[in-house]
Every structure is written in C-alpha cells, then in structure tokens.
Amino acid sequence: MELPICWIWVCVLFNLPLAGCLEIHLSETFQPGTLLANMSLGPGWTSNLDRTLSPKFIQSVFQVGRHDGIIRLSHKVQCAHTPRNPAPVYFRTGSLTSEDVILTHFNVFVHGQDCFIKYKRKKASGKPDIHIKHLTKLEATSCLPAGKLLLNVTELLPAFTRNTAFLNSMCVGKDLSAVFRHGDLFLASDLCLEHRGQPEVHLHCALHSSPGGRLSVQLSLTVVKVPNQHGSFSETVQTKSGKLIHRGRRQVNTSPQFQLPNYQVSVPENEPAGTRVITLKATDPDDGEAGRLEYSMEALFYSRSNDFFDMDSQTGSITTVQALDREVKDTHVFKVSVTDNGSPKRSATSYLTVTVSDTNDHSPVFEQTEYRVSIRENVEVGFEVMTIRATDGDAPSNANMIYKIVNGDGVNSVFEIDPRNGLVRIRERPDRETRAQYQLIVEANDQGKDPGPRSATATVNISVEDENDNYPQFSEKRYVVQIPENVAVNTKVIQVDATDKDEGNNAKVHYSIISGNVKGQFYIHSPTGVIDVINPLDYEMIREYNLRIKAQDGGRPPLINGTGMVVVQVVDVNDNAPMFVSTPFQATVLENVAIGYSVIHIQAIDGDSGENARLHYRLTDTTPGCPFTINNSTGWITVSEELDRETTDFYTFGVEARDHGIPVMSSSASVSITVLDVNDNVPTFTEKVYSLKINEDAVVGTSVLSVTAVDRDVNSVVTYQISSGNTRNRFAITSQSGGGLITLALPLDYKQERQYVLTVTASDGTRSDTAQVFINVTDANTHRPVFQSANYQVMLSEEKPVGSTVVLISATDEDTGENARITYVMEDNVPQFKIDSDTGAITTQMEIDYEDQASYTLAIIARDNGIPQKSDTTYVEIVILDANDNTPQFLRDRYQGTVLEDAPVYTSVLQISASDRDSGSNGRVSYTFNGGDDGEGDFFIEPYSGIIRTARKLDRENVPVYNLKAYAVDRGIPPLKSAVPIHVVVQDINDNAPVFEKDELFIDVEENSPVGSVVARITATDPDEGTNAQIMYQIVEGNNPEVFQLDIFNGDLTALTDLDYEARREYVIVVQATSAPLVSRATVHIRLVDINDNEPVLQNFEIIFNNYITNKSNSFPSGIIGKVPAHDPDVSDKLRYKFESGNELSLLLLNEDNGDLRLSRDLDNDRTLEAPMTISVSGKKKKFRKRKKKEAKEENEEMNEGELEQPSTGCLLE
C-alpha cells in the first residue's frame, strides 16, 4: 500500500538548528500495515528496531521487515498513548557477512485530534541522522597510495536516501586522512601499516547532504591489520649503527583462523536437499600436514539442526540434507570448528547462524474450519456478529490477510465483512420468519508474492434466533358449529386452530374462552383448542352461544390474539310434548248461537321450536253428529251445526294437540260444553277490581287468583276468559263451577313487565260482565352479574411495590337489592395477587419477578347475593413487564488465557460469556473494557462475541502478565453491568538480544594470576525467559594471541598465560553474547593490577662536574643537575632515596622523594675532587663516583667517549 504523501521528511530546506532531521509523521487515521520507510540495503543485511535507544512506548508502533528493511505501522497510534511528541526512534541494520552496522535516527510526530506536538528550538544534539560503522581489514605489510578507493559510502546508505546528494568534504584523523567525493571515500595520503605499531587505524568522517547540509551521516572507519597470507609476520628493527632492517620470523605450528568470528547466512525454505548454504574458509599459514584443515560443525540450542545440514570436512562447504521449513524452525545456530593436522593439532572456532527465509508455502488457516453463531432477529444494522480470524505460518509479508464473503446466495444483502479485520456485521435486519439459517463462505487471502497468493475458506453458519414478534393467527375468522341440544356431556364440539410464525415457546399457542360461555356450558383444552360441552344444553333456554376465544403464545412477554369467535348454534330436539294451558276445558254456549260461533279456545304450548313447536289440534272421542269443530291451527272450537238444547244439552269429547317434530309428540285434554237455554240475567263479578303480587320466578301453572261472577238465571253457566291486558299471554284462566281460576301460563320477567292489568270477562253465553285484575310482578334473582369486559388484559411492571393496584374490574346485575349486590372472588388462589371483594380492585400482595413468571391469568368470579346466588366469570390476563433488575452474570468467576508475545494484531486470546435473566434489550449483553483495565490499550474485546484480541504487538519483557477487567453491560435504561477479572500470560519468544551492562566494560585483574584461573566473569542479561534466554559467550576480537578463554555458557574469563603488568598493562578484547539468532557485543578492557613483585633497579653512575668559570662569575649551576638513575617496574611502589655514605661533606643535595640531585655551593672552587658515595633506593644500595676536573678540553674528550652530558648544568650522569 503506497501512501498518498511521503511521510519521511529530510530536513534540507530549513535553516533552524534541529535535534534531528529525519522525521516520520503518523496520523491517528493510518491503518496497520501502512508503509513508512524503506531501510533496505539489499541482500545480506538484516534490520531491526534498536530497543536500547528507542523509548519503550514507541517501540510497539513499528513493524520492521528483518530481511527487506521495510518499516510498517504495527497498529493504530493514539495521542493519548504518546507521552512524548515528537519521540526519537532508532533502527539498526547489520551485515550478515561483515561487521558493518548502520544506525538510523528518526523523530516521530503523531498527528490527530487532541494531539499536542511540542516543537522546541534547541541546539543540534551532535548525533548524526545516520551512523555507519565500517571495518576494513588489510595485511600487515600493506601500503596504500593516496587516491586509493577505500569505500563506496552510498552503498551503505538506506534505500530512502539513494537520491540524496552529499557535499564533498575532507576527513582528517590522527592516523588517517581521506577525501569524500561523489559518494566515495579515497585516501588523502599514503598509508603503510607495516610502519605503525598499533593494530588499528581509525577515522571519523562527518558527511552532509546537499543543499543545506541538514542530513548528517557519521562514518566511523576502522582499518585493522591482519597477518600476511603466507603466514609469517615481518618486523622492522633498528641496528646499533642506526640502519633499519626487516627480518622475518620463522614459521611455527600456528592455529587455523576463520575470516570472521561469526557468520550469518539466509537460505530460502523448501529448497531441495543438497542446496548450498555457505562455504566457510579458514586459513593456516603452516605447511604440510600442519596446514591441512578439516571442518566440522555442531548444532547449538536445537540438536535437530544437525539433521538438516551437512558440512564437507575438506572444503568447509555446508549444504542442506533435507528441505527446510521456516515455520518449524526459522533459525539454526552452529558451532563450527576447523582443526589442522599438525602436532599437536590446533583448532579454531567460529559460529554460524542460518536464517531460513520465508516463501509463501502456507495457506491461511482459520481459527475454526466451521463457525457457528446465533443472532437475534431484528438486530439493528451495524450489529457486530463475530470476528473471523485466519493465521498464516508464513512471514508477515506473505500473511497479510484480506477477507471476503465469496458466496452470493442472498447473504451479502444481510451480512458484510470487513476485509482487513474479518469483522462480520449486519447490513440489513434479519427476519427469522423469512430465513432462519444463513451459511457464509468466507475466504482469507494472504496476498503472498512468492510464489503467489494462497487462500482458504471457512464456513460460517448463522442461526437467527426467534423473537416473539408474531401474533397467533386463527385459521378462520369465525367458527360456526351446530350441535343438538341433547348432545352428551364431554362431547367435542369443535377444535379451533391458531398458528404462530415464531418458533419454540414463542410459537406454542394456548387457548382460553374469554367471553360468551354462559353458565359455563363449554370447556376449551388450552394446549389443543378442542372445545367440549361440559353441561347439558337446552335449546329452549339458550339457543346460541357466541364464544370469544383467546390465543396466547408462550413468549416473554406473550402476544395475545383475542379475536377468535366460535358461534355454537344449539339445534332444537323435539323433546317437549305440547302442554295445554289448563285442563279440562269447560264452556257453555247458548243454543241459539249461529254456526261458526267460537265456543272455547283450546290453547297448548310447546317448549320446542320450529316444526317441533308447530301444533296441530283435532277433536277426539266425538260422537256422530257432534255439532262442534276445531281449527287445527288456532285451537278454536266453533259451532258447526245448529244446537238444540232440548235434543242435547251437554257435550263431552277429547281434544289432542300434536306437534310436527320427529318423532311426533302430543297431549290430550277433555272438553265439556253445556248448551244453555237463552237467559236474561247478566253475570256480575263480586268484585270489580282485584290486586295481587306474584314473584317473577313463579313456575308455570301456578294459581294466581280465583275470580267469581254471579248469574241469577236458573241453571246459568258462567264462563271466564281474559279479554285484554294479557301481554305475551303470560296468564290463562279456567272456568270452574266456583269461578274463574287465573294461572301462570308462561314465565315472567320482572325487567320486561313489572305489572299486568288483566280484564276478565264472565259470560253466561249471552250476557257478560268484566272485572280488572292488577298483578304486580316482584323481582326475583333472575339475572346473573355481568362483567363490563369479558376479558381484561393489563400490563404490570415487575418493579411495582407490594400493594400496587393492578386493575379495577366491575360487574353489573340487572336485579335489585340483595339480588344485585355483587361480591368478587378469585377462583384459584394465586399468592401474588388479591382482590377486594367489594370493589373488584386487584392488587399485588408480594413482589413480582418477571424472571420467575412472565404472565398470570386470574379467573375472577362475580356473585350476587340473591337466593339462589348467581355468578359470572371473567379472566384477567396480567402481563408482567420486565424491568432491568438483573445484572449480567459471567459463566466463570475468573478467566485465564495465554498469548505469544509475537502474536499478530487481532489474535484471539480467549472468549468470555455472560447472560442476563432479563428480556428484550434488558437481557442483551455486550462486552467492553470501558472503565476497566485493557492493558493500556494492548487488548480489545469484541462487544457481542466476547472474544478478547490483541490490539497491538505485545512485549513480554515489558509486560509479562496482564490483569484485565472486562464488563458485561446490558441495554437497559439505566444499563446494568458486572465485571470479571482476566489473567493473561504473555509467552516468550526470542526477540531480545542479550544486553551487557555497558557497551564498554573495565575489569581489573591482578598480575601473576595463576594460569587456568578464572580472573573475571563477563555476563549479559537477556530479558527473554527459558531457552530464549540462554546465552552463548565468545571472544571475537583482540584475543590474538590467545591470552584469555571465555566459557561459552557462563562467561567465565580464564587466563591462559602468565599476566605480567610490567610486560603489558591492559588487554582489550571484544566479547559477543549470542542468543541465536540475536547477538550483542561489548568491548572489555582488562586492566592488570600491579603487585609488588619487582625490586627497584639502580645502576652505578658517575657525576662529572666541569667548572670552566671562576667562582666570581656567579654562573655556578644551582638547579637540578640530574636524577638518581633508579626505577621500579612495579609502578605502585614509591621509591625513597638516601645517602648511605660518602656525602658527609654534603657535596650533593638529594631529594629523598624523587631522587633529584643538586650541587652544593661548596663545590664552587678550583680544587679537583673525587668522592665515592653510596645511595640506597628503597633498600637497594649502589656506589657512584664523583669527579671534579679543571681542564675543559679533557672533559670534552671524555664526553665524546660516550658519556652523557647535561648541557644546562655541566653535569654528567652515567
């Protein structure tokens, strides 16, 4: 991925003095993997971030390609996690074939919201942007002329500087001068190593870019003198005559020597067996068998490395034995030995690190080949379903994953995947009733280049969990069924059916009758919807029932459909015989009435209906010539022939009422008709007005009142009939010898007619009289209570306090008085609720918990206080509303996980899970570190899956253990949350080079330490652990000839020869610590500590004093004429000087602390004097002779014979 702009700035346009001129500018919006810089120097070089120089907080930001030198962004940066802005960072590039090292320094700026960049003017720090350390080895006898090319500097500069021009400059050092021109470094003067005593020559050269010179490069060049190829050294000596001559040392049985103490080489993986790795060459200047070499190698740290490589013992060529697999082992370390065949055999050791370079030979591997996850339907767009991860055993350049959904199949309209991090999201609300299962085929492509990209697929099965979002639906809007009234009890009437598109309990439907079940004639089986008749039916009482059915699903909360209607039509059965309103029937008729005269009305009633109640009348038991006939339909008996009382004055016969039902049912009665003679007296009622009360629930046939009329005619027969006021034919009257008996013909209803005013006619056949009968109907308990609603549905929050009113129900009764006073009771005892018997108020009497029960159905009975009591039943559906009263609960009290410190960003560490007993959004749980400890941003958590992943590169050496705290949060208002501790252990990888205490170590060793004794222990520390912290030590420079030996495992430094302070005071060696494949070096100064093992050395000496001038000249030498020629090889010793004898006249003045000598003034004369004296130096005594001469000439001759004169004093010491 190329950046739209160059984020590496080289300070070539500014004149301000800056601390550093290479800058990397980062933005908070940059994605991981963004290319930042190219540090490449080509094959044979490795790059890494210098952790000792770079601040810890910035180290995890960068990902450095070890072999290609590409610097990428490891993870997103945040200003909140950047305590220094800008911050320095250092990258180190090292050669695999030499000791060359390039150190590059950048200043890193982070830009974004709330970022504060501290621009600060300051003086240049003196540190170069790029520091190159280069080592050149030349033979000891080499002489290079001026103008000789020493080094192509541009080949040692990182790739991003290749187009940078540099100013020509002159580099002058103490021992070496060079000219830098057009990228090359040339000798400015001749260089002959054989004339130089020191083994190394150093040159430091500062280079600057053009124009402006703001990019600085520091070049540190070291020229090392190495033995001649023919195996001998030449040395230059000076003869006594002053001539310089060269003489060669004789050859000895020398040890072989490798060109380098360490070798590093890279081999591609999967190359066939026999692939050449490297040829290691050692040299031995000896001749013959002593110079014939044999090579061998031994694996270090990983014994199986021996199985992968073979070394030709004669040529030193190393080849592979089998194909290498970088993912099994990416680094192999060997100890390589070379042995000559001299006597005794001598050997040398070097170390070889083989790095297996990556090829794209691994396909991505998903964490699971098949994923299964459930989501709730109707989740919002953008909901994060889960994160799919694939890893690739190859190196990062061949493992840059891109994810995509490869199957169309309609899933792309519902789901989408982030191509970089594999996060699957909702892009369209799923509907389980439309589709309950989705299968996504997700492909991961590693985008590898060599030999090409590889991919893998995984199946993601997504189940859509049901939400109770569908109401039950009846199969028919209205069910109609007919059943005969004589159907047996517990007979099935009908089965209603409602379906719910949801599933599980959300689709499980229960049924109940909520209204219309008068007198509880029917029962519905709740699970099945089957309706049975449970009490006898009577068509004559109730002909049709309208049952309202409720279908309720099992969801939480439930959804209810109360629109089901079942019409039960009771079919009449001919189960009632006609019943005459009175019997026997008696009537009188005047003999002179006309034919067709209506004599008496025969009336019967039938409780059935339709044809079953349609009556047919006929006369029975009549004699021939009977003068009466009956209307078959109306029942009126009329005169069919002229009457003649004198012939027949009395008739008796039967009458039959027959219905039209099947089977036919009939009843019979007797009829008596008396033929009267015509008379002239009017029947007269004894009372003109009658008044009485009758209860409305009086049974049919009840005698109501007997009325009497008196006819003074002889033998008159008075008949009675109700001529008016008999509303709905509720009453009937029967003529009797004593009067007319009024009886109840049909049931009364107080609500319809509370009073009847009957007009009763008494007739003797010709004349008649009337009377009024006032009948007051008194109320009976004829009406049952009726609820205002046949079904109540109310919502109740579970957080309502005890005693809260749920609902107030009410019933009415059309009766009056006690018959209308209603008492409410609960049919079943539901301990959570109670009802006020007088008001119908339902209240809670204990705490309600939605999680225990989501709904309640209460059967409430309303009873009146009549005799007998009547009642009605209603059902109260109480749906409990969930309150967010439950915190999420984790499945475990504590979670533990492990992760490798080199795990890629987004690696899954572990998964946490919590549940919430609440429902809906109150029970939906998401996960977060918000308010908790996320390891200072090192981890993040997927909010819906609970998978904890790495947010950036980890460093075990910085943080070995994380104690995180995650929260599960519901979506209630306000939300509730709970926390869980998470313990994550970071497992070590070998990513840290050993570190010496200092780059330059100083060790004091007493001289004369026994040969073979351990004189010091040199150790390095490795912040890794276990086998990754195993360190191997070796001396790589300065131990020639071998004076010391370093234990490879514990760093013990052993003296191999006698150490003599007086012969050599200091040794400088370079020690290397290796934790394969990582190395570090330190320069060790071994300073010998002098011990007093030498006596002072004092030679006999002579002082000659020449006095050429008289004492009047005032030229007598009064200063120091010389020093006693004594020394002590033990520099720590303090010499003391003393005259033992011969200086009794104090001719010489001696400084006892430093041995300085002065002449006494007494010697300023012309006398010749010779005085032997004895001087002791710290215990040593030596004699010397003092002579005084007079003639200068003679003394000059003596001086020419080799005595040393002190010109300033005229004194000679010998």
From TrEMBL:
Chief place where the protein resides: membrane
InterPro entries: Cadherin-like_dom, Cadherin-like_sf, Cadherin_CELSR1-3_9th, Cadherin_CS
Claim: Ion transport is one of the keywords in the record: no
Segments for region (Disordered): 1178-1214
Molecular function (Gene Ontology), one example: calcium ion binding
Cellular component terms per the entry's GO annotation: plasma membrane
Cross-referenced Pfam families: Cadherin (PF00028), Cadherin_CELSR2_9th (PF23592)
GO biological process: anatomical structure morphogenesis; homophilic cell adhesion via plasma membrane adhesion molecules
Superkingdom per UniProt: Eukaryota
Signal peptide: 1-21
Alphabetized UniProt keyword annotations: Calcium, Disulfide bond, EGF-like domain, Glycoprotein, Membrane, Repeat, Signal, Transmembrane, Transmembrane helix
Domain named Cadherin: residues: 259-366, 367-474, 475-580, 581-685, 686-787, 788-890, 891-996, 997-1098
Compartments where located: Membrane
UniProt keyword annotation of rRNA processing present: no
Record field: compositional bias (Acidic residues): 1194-1204
Extent of Basic residues compositional bias: 1179-1190
Protein name according to UniProt: Cadherin domain-containing protein
